[in-house]
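Chapter review: from sequence to fold.
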Amino acid sequence: MSKAPVPTRDEILRFVADSPGRVGKREIAKAFNVKGAGRVELKALLADMAEEGLIAKAGKRLSRPGELPRVALLSVTGRTGDGDLIAEPTSWEHDEPRPKVVLIGTKPAPGMGDRLLARISYDEDDGRPVGKVIKVIERRPASTLAVLERFGDKPQLSPTTKKERDTYFVHPDAVKDIPNDTLVRIEVDRGRSARIVEVIGPVGSEQAVSLLAIHAHGIPNQFPERVLAAAAAAEPANLEGREDWRDIPFLTIDPADAKDHDDAVFAEPDPHNEGGHVVTVAIADVAYYVTAGSPMDTEARLRGNSTYFPDRVVPMLPERISNDLCSLREGEVRPAMAVRMVFAGDGRKQRHSFHRVLMRSERRLAYQEAQKIAEGQPSDVAPLIENLWAAYRCLMKGRDARDPLELDLPERKILLTPDGQVDRVIVPERLDAHKLIEEFMIQSNVAAAETCEKAGIPLLYRIHDQPSLEKIDLLKEFLATLELKLARAVGVRPSDFNGILAKVAGTQNAQLVNEVILRSQAQAEYAPDNIGHFGLSLRRYAHFTSPIRRYADLVVHRALIRAEGLGKDGLTDEAIEELGQIGTEISQTERRSMVAERETTDRLIAQWLVDKVGATFEGRIGGVTKAGLFVKLNDTGADGFVPISTLGNEFMIYDEAAQALIGEATGTTFRLGDDVTVRLMEAAPFSGALRFDVIDHQPTAKLQRKGRRPARPARDRRPVRRGRR
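The token string follows.
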């Protein structure tokens, strides 16, 4: 019998998806009769598919990315609206969110927080994963945050996160001395009873909203005494081992409300290169004060980064360091790590050098002030600003040639009243002053990576992988519904996305396409192994410019000190051995801060809107799922949910490629990006959840139904109670 050919990628993917048991190279070879030299070819093909993101490896078993194994270790995290338990995998290495598994056949009966083994299958109607409990591995009470409320003489514990719907009960005697609206940490026992293990404080107090996120995510917000003592004992730096750059008229350009200043900039024309410029960037020398293995270093690594809330900052370093000794204040002498970069007239960097210096900032400017001076407002620092803008125009030529990903996604900012409540939500104008500082910092970061690499000193790169083929395929399907075409899937470049963005610029679909392309991107992270930065279109990149607020930058400073022989406080051999672990840790703390910041924003806006239940708002469909729609309000950027049961009296079919819900009978289409008018039906300030009803909708188009199973039937509208869930 002749040897069967090696199966194709599609054949392998179908086999992996359809196989009920363990699937590995051996099982694939047997199924397709691959023998001899063909096994070597098959092994190489599977390795390529894993690298391309088409399959994932768990030991010797293969699966599709984001797919659960047939038997999974899960942790019980919540309940569905129907009361069924929900569990999530205890470990998850994919980019996709952890899947929610509905538990069935719960004998033995698990409780909240328990860890268990379950056999995984998928619901035939909607494709959701379900798990049949095999064995409860570990009984453990689930710790969560709740708010104590009383209804008559009955105390109740209300959840503080959107994913929790249950309220819990506690014996009245256990809370007789705790007032209403107090934030507490609870452990959930069997069923819906709970016990209070920590009283945190009143939720109505100033800054309580961010306190919810701090406690929920375990963000350290109190410095140990040994750390504060080390900061208090720190002495200002002097000229020993440094160059004297105090005569260079640096400018700091930051947000108007900034309290710490990492960076200062200076530029001048290059006298030896017509059209060229010399750009100098000075960065706070945190490594001088925070030495490896010291109490401040240990705490900084634990925190990973500063976390920014609308009402407070949880800093990585004590205030004595972040706001005083290391902050490049106007007119005050400060130690700095500086990079001097020479650019040709075409904006390409020709050379650079790093220096450890003592410097003084000539002037502190807000972005808006710098912009006005650049546009002609008289100022004694106008010549310095003119040189900065001339250098920026030069550097933009190099940026344009590099063609990095140019997403246009305005960021909203919450402005608070003096008592910590939401005053209004604004979209700050994106100025050339912002872009100038951003480009100077990018070039400084590139220079840092190049210097360490050239010297053979390991460092933490800021890496950003290209999108997976699976995400590219989904993006191509969606763009096709808008009659847009992505030229390629393999070897895609930022310029390919920019071409799409240019086509929709100024159209109704511009913001939608920007958001969908953003969702297709991988998440940036820190690692000692360099794969480049896809979004910035850079071969090597490292964070160097914010050591006050990011531990990664402090590590890079130490690497530079060692590479350039700039002192004894460089990167240690022990730290080099731990770079991989450090990268993993601080990538996780970065994500933790992002989630905490987002949740705080949601809670503040929900708190602001609680008195506006029943009011109508203009918005846009920002997400489509089998369960309903996510709507983003135009004026505040707030996100809320529209349950599918409120969308009409027909079956709604979920079209994943088109990101739409389509009425089976009428073809009425609710599609990602559609403009809608909604009525606010419920606002839960503790969890940040909003619920809307659609009262007016202008669909962009009616889509062809493709015979998919209905997501679920929509039911008659029912009155909704305004109480918190």
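Two observations follow directly from the output. Residues 466-521 form one domain. The mean pLDDT is 86.
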